Every structure is written in structure tokens, then in C-alpha cells.
Amino acid sequence: MLQNWLKIAFINYKKNWLSTIINLFGLTIGLTGFMLILMHWNDEESFERWNPKKDNIYYFQTYYKKDNSYGGAISIPLAENALKQISEVQDYVLINGMEIAYKMTTKNKTAYQQGGLAASENFFNLFPFKLVAGSYKDVLKNDNNIAISNVVAKNLFGKTEVAGETIKINTKDYIVTAVYELPKENSQIKPDFIFKPAEQLKNDKEAWGNFNYGCFFLLRKEADPRSFEKKFLDIIMLRAKINSKGAGVTPQQFIDMYGPTDSLLTPIERIKLHSEMTWFGKPDFKSLMILFTLSVLIVILSAINFINLKTAQASQRAKEIGVRKAIGSTKYSLILQFLMETFLICFASYLLSLALTELLLPSLNKFYDKEIVMNDWHIYFYSFLMVALVTLVSGLIPALYLSNFKAIETLKGNFARSKNGVWLRNGILTLQLIISSFFIIGGLIVNQQVKYMMNKDLGFNGKQIFQIDFNEDNNGKPWLKYERLRTEMAKIPGVESVSFAEAPPGTNNQSTSNMDYMDKSIQARHGSMDYNYPQFMGVKLLKGRWLDPKLSSDTINNALVNEAFLRRFGWTDEQAMKREIRPGFDDKAYRIVGITKDFNIRSLKSEVEPMIFFHYRETTWKRYNVSNIQLKLKADDIDGTVKRLKTYWQNSVEPGYPFNSYFIDKQFAKTFETYQKQQTLFTILNAMVLMVALLGLFALSSLMIEQKLKDVAIKKTLGASDGNLIVGLTKQFLWITFIAVLVSIPISYYLMNEWLKDFAYRIDMPVLPFILSMILLLILTFAVVSIKAYQATKVNLVKYLKYE
Fold it and tell me: Any idea of its EC number (predicted)?
């Protein structure tokens, strides 16, 4: 029986070769897209799974009810009191800074080493990397202890057994206490060397409000993280009782004003995608889900093609089914036969998609900067599960439809002239076109949003501004190094002007702190700068004046704020110019002397936040954050000027260090990369969807028009013109397309509006994409169907009328 089924299947594949190829092609494309996105998702979910303690490690986040926002940092007193007072806590580790870089010197070699991490001394208790040399006992206990990876050990010493060796960083000697091997698996925490920021930890030990650290808590086995969160409310209140005394408010008022009001623990293996905010940034799970959903839609489109083509071919198999039923074949065996035929196509598509996925995987890795390989059984399992599901859905509907044919009707030969199946085909074709219309509308809206962001006035001009990051001098006073460089580098030919900002556009260097005025407090970003920086960047002044080097008060307590700062306080320009605010990062009041127009420092996805700017000498600790110099280059010889700057830097400023530099506008452009990638992927998926849909439409229209060739012959004999015949044959498909687009419009509007809500600066919902989708799909439908319709008008009249 199976051999007979296979023989019948291959006869029908050959007879309907066009629809067979289209089904194979569509399913292969759909499954390939599904597997690639699934591998990307699986890779994102695999972070931190290497850690043997992962089931009990959680990342700590704060919640601020006033702003309905989450923070990814903690202060030392909060963490220490959590360890002391919450029974669920076994240990914790603090991290401060990532990708730290130093020039390291040993007896035999000097090398610039990147990828460092500052962490509290119990780091290896939560992150037990494989130990190569030394010991983890008291590994970071002393201020001059350092642990290094085996890669760094080989680079500096030529071997890994280097415990006890000395590394000089600036003027300080560090003792290597451990050498470890980093996990090969995915992790956001892969430091090449680890040290304890002893001075900072000492200074912050009693500072409840200095949220300067990312924090991982190790909970006891079977501990409930929700119980931790409830108990942490007591620690929040403890902090409020201590800090509220100096603020002149009650503890509850202090919490309401400054927060945090609650906490959240996220399992370490979920923080890459499912946390609210971390030290490594905010996850973007929503975009991943959109991509995955779109890939599933392509598979659904392929399944729709299959269903449509199978039901359209029903008349060709009507007599076969009638004969099989007449000789005793059951409905169950017919369903099994048709399901087997579907599975053969789906399985062949699965094998082809595996090969195509392997070919496209290097491009995906390059696109996402990953190293994914096809060695995870989950990929094969879930993709095969999708194949089984497609087989069941796209095979069962036609199978039930075909197996329900009545033997008497089919053997009489009347089936081809019946209306059975038309509603099913039209309904499924409509669904296919609805999905196609959504992709067209969505693709056009994504393109418009990305284009809008790329062309939006940012409020500053970063063209020709070249930034060089520098390392701290041996004297430990980086602001003095900047001031020396400012004078010397201004003399280099091609340099127009020089300045500095702690928080240049395109970076996340900005710190956040509370800004208080009377009984009101807001959170605002703050950054130190040189006097001329706003003018240097082309920022507009709305009210007041710029900072002036001739006024000593401008290095004491004067500051500039932006429009968003005023909006958050609810002040007018005139009111702001009379105010003094107390920032949480200093113990003195700051007077507002100027108001700037809003300008974007971070991604355009986020709204411009309240910001305050002041001279780097104004706040004692801020001068230690001076770590770059920015130069505006003359336009006539930019390449030559960059070469001169590089030569000067490597010969006279930091010999032996890499030349870390970039243009500000190009750095800010990196904030668009995520959305440009979304645009690219949406365009690719759009092309795939249209290709699959149009090929399916062509095959379906071919089968349906072939069933009408006798009607065409009769009409042509009676004098119908080719034009009328073509319109008559395509009219049904055009109506289906028109209805499908109308149905897709509210669906597309809702979904794309939800996507646009993620952007603080977004386009108004445009009308043109909806109109273009209608026009484009009607034109494509007419073009595809009219090809077969035109061929039908050339029908051989004798062939179809000789028996009438």
C-alpha cells in the first residue's frame, strides 16, 4: 500500500510540477528564515548558562514609582544591609566599570591590555571561572591583588603559571593571585583581568545614595526571590530614615521623592533578554519577538500556498478518489495518503532549508556580530516540529476536503463544474494577501521612521569634530593633562578649536542624580565640560549666557540646563534664571545662568532628558572624569590633520597606547544601527513574503484559469475580445486583493502604531503606505494573473469545443 501511495504521489508531483516547485521553494524559504531567527533567539537565551551557580544568582534592579522606571545599579550600604538582614541572601558581588584598559608592564614586556573589570573581592564566589594557576582564596582581598585570564598571562609573561608575579599599572604594582580561563559559552561577563577598586569602595562605603555599582545576589537554595523583594522594602526604609534627616522630610516622603520604591531580582540566565535594566544596558526582547513572529508568518504563507494549490488541484484528482472509494478505500486511509504526500514535500523542504541555513549562517553571524554554529539539537528539534505542524495544517485541510468527495458525483464527471472548494480557496488566498499587505505597509512605515530619525535635527553639529580618548597620567590629575593638551594640540595645522565634555553624543557616560528645589525633586543627567563646549558643538542658547572663563563663579557654582530640565520642574525661562538647585552629586547649590535648546546625546529612541552642564573644575570629583579631548578640524584637509594628530599622539602623548579616536557624528550614527538592522531585516522579509505570495498566486491562478478554458473558448467563439476575457479572468483576484488590503489596514495600523510607541521621536502615522500597499498589490496581482489570463485567450478552440 505504501509503495502504491508513493507511486501516486510522485505521479502527481510530476504532473503538477510548477505547484510542486513553488511549494518546495516557499516552504524552504520560510523554514530557512524561521531557523535563522530561532538560532539568533536561542543564542541570546544561552547567556550565563555556563555558570554552575546560575540557578541561585540574580541581578538586582531598583524601581522608581514616580517615574515608572527601573535602574540597574545599587549602593554599597544597600547591598551590605541586604546581606545582613535578608536571610535568603548568601553572598553578593558588585561590579563597577566594564572594558577597562591599562598599559601593563612586567619584567620583560609592556602591553596595552583591554577588557578589565572592577569588582568586589568575592567576585569568583559567584563567577567560578576555571582556575589555571594560583588560588581563589582571598584572591582580591588586598588592594594590590589582580586576577588575569590565561590569554593575558601568555601575552604578558609567555606562560600561565604566573601566580605571585608583579604587574605594574601606572605607578602601582599589582600581584597576580590567580590565573583563570574564561568560559567558551556566551556570557556578558568575560573580563580579561579583574581588580578591586579599593579607593572607590572605601569612599562609597557609607554613601547610601551613590548608586555606582551593578549587583548580583547569590541566594540560598530554594530561596524565593519575591521574598527578598518584600524584605528589601525594609532596607529602603532604613536608608530613608538615615538620609531623610538631612533633607528635612519624613522617611516616606524621602522615598516618594528620591526612591527607589521597590526592587526586582532577575535570574542571571535571563538578564540578557528579560531584565528591565542592567549594568550592560536595557534588553530589547520586543524586537526579537517581532522578528520571530515575522519569520513564523512567512512559514504560514508557505502553508497557505500549499493549502490553496492542493484544493485547486482537487478536480484533477476527483476521479482517482472516486475510484479508490468505489473499490473500498476508507476516508481514514485517504487522509493518511494525502498527509504523507504533504509530509514528503515538507521534509524535502526541511532538508533544503538546513543546507540553505548553513550557507546563510555566516552572513547572519556577520550581521549580528556573533559566532553561532548549527550544533544545538534544539534548532533541529523545533524546526522539525514546525515541519510537522506545517504538514498537519497544510496537509489536513486539503486531505479532509479531498477525502469528502462523493464517489458517485466524481465518477459522473460533474465535479469540475461544481462550486465546491471555491470559498475555501478564496478565504485562504485572502488571508495570504492580508499578510502580504501588512508586510508592505510595515516595511514602508519602518523605512519612513528610520529615515526620519536619520534626518532629524539633533540640536548639535558633530561634523568635523574628532574625539581622542586618553589615559590617566602618572600624577593622577587627568584635567591637568587635558589643559596641557588643549594648548599644544590647538597649534597643530588643521585644528580649528579644542574642547572637552564628559558626556559626548553617542555615549552612555552621563551620570544621573536628583536635582532638588524646595520640596520638589527630579532626576537629571549631568556632565562636566569645558567653557566653550556648547558653542563648540553648535548648541543653541535660549536664555541667559554661556559659561565664561573670565568669571571665577563659573568654576564654583554656575551651570547651564536644557529645556527638558525646565519642563520637568514646570518652570518658565524667567523663573529658571532666578533659581538655585541642589544636585545630589554635590554638597552646594548651583545657580542657573543659561538655558540651552534640547539636543540629543543618546539614541533618538529616548526622549531628551533633563540635563545640567557645568565646568569640570566646579565639582571636585568630576575633574577626575576628564578623559578625552575633542578637536574641530578644518574641512580642507581632514585626512591630513588626522594623520598629524595620530603622529603627535603616538610620539609625544601616549607612546605604546592605541590611538582611540572617532568622529562624533559617526559615533552617534551607531545609535541608529539597531533600527537600520530592523529596516534591513524587514526589507528582506518583505521581499521573501512577496515572492512566496506572488508565486503562490501565480500557481493558483494558473490552476483556476485552466479549469475555465472551456468557458473561455465558448466566449471567444461568441465574439469576446482578448481584453474582455483578460479582465473577466482577473476580476475575481482583483476583488480578493482589494478586500484583503481593506482588512489589513486596521490590523497594520494597530501593530505599527504599537511599534512606533517605542520611539520618543517618531513620525505621525502616514497615510501613503496604506494607499501604496493597495495600489502595489493590485498591480502585482493583475500582472501575475494576467500572464496566465493572456495565455488563456490563445486557447485552441477546436480542442475544447469539438465534443460540445
Answer: 3.6.3.-
